Amino acid sequence: MRLQLALNVSNLEESIEFYQRMFGVAPFKVKAGYANFAIDNPPLKLVLFEGEGAPGSINHLGVETETAAEVSFAEARLAAEGLNPTLTADTICCFAEKTETWVDAPDGQKWEWYVKHGDTDQRDNVVLRTISSGAVSGGEATACCS
Fold first, then answer.
1. Residues of CATH 3.10.180.10 domain(s) within the chain?
2. Which residues of 39-58 are buried (b: 16+ CB within 10 A; e: fewer)?
3. How buried is residue 121: exposed, middle or buried, by Cβ count under 10 Å (0-12/13-18/19+)?
4. CA angle 44, 39, 105 (to 5 degrees)
5. Is it true that domain 2-60 has CATH number 3.40.50.300?
6. pLDDT reported for residue 14
7. Which residue, 27, 24, 49, is CA-closest to 36?
8. Which residue in 83, 79, 117 sits closest to 98, CA to CA?
9. SS in 3 state form for the chain?
């Protein structure tokens, strides 16, 4: 697993250059208004969104897992703790096919638990299939990363 930090930026090219120099790795994926770094040291998924929210603000936070079962387990655990996660769903979102669930922190930060299955050319969210661990206490199928 690794943590994900998704930031809103005002200038994607400038931000890519900065983070590439800071972490010593090139972005894994770059699309219009979007860049994604898969950093090994420290283990971090850094995602940049140009033109979303206030520059420098957090778009969302996340935990990238290795399997869909880990996402379902997280959903069940979060629900058991009364944190009201969304249902786990297979989605296309942010240029990836993934299984994900979301939960909102008290101050409104969105947290995504997800596993990526593949790449896609689509940024907008599409729910392909809703999966439920049976422990969900609320939540609609899913939000997306913007």
1. 2-60
2. beeeeebbbbbbebeeeeee
3. exposed
4. 15
5. no
6. 97
7. 27
8. 117
9. CEEEEEEEECCHHHHHHHHHHHHCCCCCEEECCEEEEEECCCCEEEEEEECCCCCCCEEEEEEECCCHHHHHHHHHHHHHCCCCCCCEEEEEECCEEEEEEEEECCCCCEEEEEEEEEECCCCCCEEEEEECCCCCCCCCCCCCCC
For the chain, the residue count is: 146
Per-residue pLDDT tens over the stretch 88-125: 888 888 888 999 999 999 888 999 999 999 988 888 88
Find tokens 């392909």 and name the residue: 128
Distance (Å, whole) CA 50 – CA 41: 24
Output the pTM of the full model. 0.82
